[in-house]
Fold:
Amino acid sequence: MDCYNTSDLISIEQALEKLLSQTSAISDVEDVALTDAAGRITALPVISPLNVPPFANSAMDGYAVRLQDITPDAVLPVAGKAFAGSPFSGEWPAGSVIRIMTGAPVPAGTDAVIMQEQAELSEQGVRFTAMPAQGQNIRLAGEDIRQGAEVLAAGVRLGTAELPLLASLGIAQIKVVRKLKVALFSTGDELQPVGTPLQEGQIYDTNRFAVRLMLEQMHCEIIDLGIIRDDPQALREAFKAGDLHADLLISSGGVSVGEADFTKQILDEVGKISFWKLAMKPGKPFAFGQLNRALFCGLPGNPVSAVVTFYQLVQPLIAHLSGDTHWQPPARLKAKAMTPLKKSPGRLDFQRGIVSANAQGELEVRTTGHQGSHVFSSFTLGNAFIVLERERGSVKAGELVDVELFNPLLRF
Ligand code: AMP
Ligand code: MG
Structure:
């Protein structure tokens, strides 16, 4: 059992509900070139300016024919050629066919395209070994996308599925929601930036590095306020700077109840706390509140806790604030625990595990080992969270558990 009362901790579901219901998406819009739009979010629905394909064209290399000319014995002369990018433009005499390549516009009057594998070519012309059906091997204009149709909704993050589609429509500029501005700092007298030697009792600042990477993945504009000493005045200044320049301020450390933990105290002073104690592990002290302008999230100091709370709480918040209305949390799947998992009832656990499929295609999961909230290597060893319900105790090998495969925030 955890050796403290957990009944005053709010559940992660309640926390998420507050994060999303007490905040609203930014609405400023900017125009960007399609080539700069990767990861951005559509501000408006995108309407197709074209038919795709723009004209009826051949799906095969073969012959464009009129059905009335085709009989099993007919040998028909070839009256011309149609290539992709170089249409047939001459007269098409009755009783002849046109040689045509994939993607070439079908000449007016074409009923079907017969593929070349079903044609025998001789000096006199072509004979077909199969009879065509009306419309065969013709891709119709607008068959894929009709001019005027909505191809993307508003609130969609633009990636490899979306951007080439817009390119195929000739869309060169697109209206997107402006980037969310996120300021961040780490707190702690013990912290040093990477690249400087450590003195006695110092450690490197892992969290700012981790949070930066995750913010980059979410295409935020980052304002890095550095490492802030455990000093109320320095913290006050950092809060002020974040509030002035960002939509969201994220700190790490100093949200516990130790003697150098001033983050919550300053938040109390300069803003309004919504909640700061969660029934989750790792990550019990996680503060959320409102400053004058900006929102504030205070991540716990332990690096695993900082990453897990960012992933589980700040990620959906940022998606929401950025106007990404299609963001989905990673799917929870059932897997068989292949190793015992230690747990005390009272908090929802996000342990790190290694998920694989067995020969029958069933999911299995093994622990990454030590689950301490300072053991960052559990992320490099693992590929999934093992999500253990709040009231559940230890898990025996063979029990079913929920798992959540890491998304690109943790695994590119
Ligand atoms: P705190 O929440 O400030 O009490 O920090 C909890 C633990 O996390 C302490 O062991 C800190 O040294 C450690 N810690 C806090 N911030 C960081 C950071 N940015 N990088 C690595 N460890 C940290
Ligand atoms: Mg600290």
